[in-house]
Design a protein that fits this description.
alpha/beta; four-stranded mixed sheet; UDP-n-acetylglucosamine1-carboxyvinyl-transferase, Chain; 14 strands
């Protein structure tokens, strides 16, 4: 088995920038579809999945630019001309299904391939479907694609309880409900940091959402959302990995004096 040998050389010190969380960024990027105004994400991670999501959004007609060596992603969905997420793009990444809620909410329809072309039972898109159907959407499965339509007049606020706390279904419901008419409530919602980060970003865009981080989230639908600039939340796994550096360097965690202290300073771009 391959291994990495780390040899300590005294106390650790310095500043380490922690990248933005991948799952949070992949959730925030589709939020651009909810508004015709620009959305700028800072502290973005430089990963292939971000490039894949960028390609998917561009396939709809969105403008996506990477700046500052990939740490900033600028998005604009003012000229959307396509509402179909093709299998060739969706199959590469599970998070691609997060375009379903935003497209349905703003444009009233969407055609999105099942991730990996798999059956609903194998990869439970049924949780996403039931959540969006609660808002009034009609969704049919045809030849591996979900064909979704909003009712005349748009999505309507509703109360929905997830069978289990699905992160993706929670995110799709929140984004769709942000433009629905009336009040929506999702119960047994997932509580992951990326959901709280999405709610924070949508709040900057003008959404009215309460309960982030709890099992019950309430969304008051608004007529439109505007642009915003938002820093992607810090990747908790990367942060935790660096926090273990003192142990790897042989520093006693309960030793708080002198040169034995490992001083790590984390910064968020």
């Amino acid at each position: 088995m391959d291994s990495i040998l780390v040899t300590g050389n005294g106390a650790l010190h310095g500043a380490i920038p922690i990248a933005g969380a991948k799952n949070a960024c992949l959730t925030l990027m589709p939020a651009t579809l909810l508004s015709e105004e620009p959305l700028t994400l800072t502290n973005a991670p430089r990963l292939s999945d971000i490039a894949t999501m960028s390609a998917l959004l561009r396939s709809f007609g969105a403008e996506v630019s990477s700046m500052n060596e990939g740490l900033v992603v600028a998005l604009s969905s003012h000229n959307i001309g396509n509402l179909t997420a093709d299998y060739d793009l969706v199959r590469k990444m599970r998070a691609s299904n997060l375009v379903l809620g935003p497209l349905l909410a703003r444009f009233g329809q969407a055609v999105v391939s099942l991730p990996g072309g798999c059956a609903i039972g194998a990869r439970p898109m049924d949780l996403h479907i039931s959540a969006l159907e609660a808002l009034g959407a009609e969704i049919d499965l045809k030849e591996g694609y979900l064909h979704a339509k909003a009712p005349i007049g748009g999505l309507r606020g509703a109360r929905h309880r997830l069978r289990f706390a699905s992160v993706g279904a929670t995110e799709n419901f929140i984004m769709a409900a942000s433009l629905a008419k009336g009040i929506s409530v999702i119960e047994n919602a997932a509580r992951e940091p990326e959901i709280v980060d999405l709610i924070d970003c949508l709040g900057k865009m003008g959404a009215q959402i309460d309960g982030g981080g709890s099992e019950t989230i309430t969304i008051q639908g608004v007529e439109r959302l505007h642009g915003a600039t938002h820093p992607v939340v810090t990747d908790r796994i990367e942060l935790g990995t660096y926090m273990q550096a003192p142990v790897s360097a042989g520093v006693k965690l309960n030793d708080w004096g002198g040169e034995s202290i490992c001083s790590l300073h984390f910064s968020r771009n």
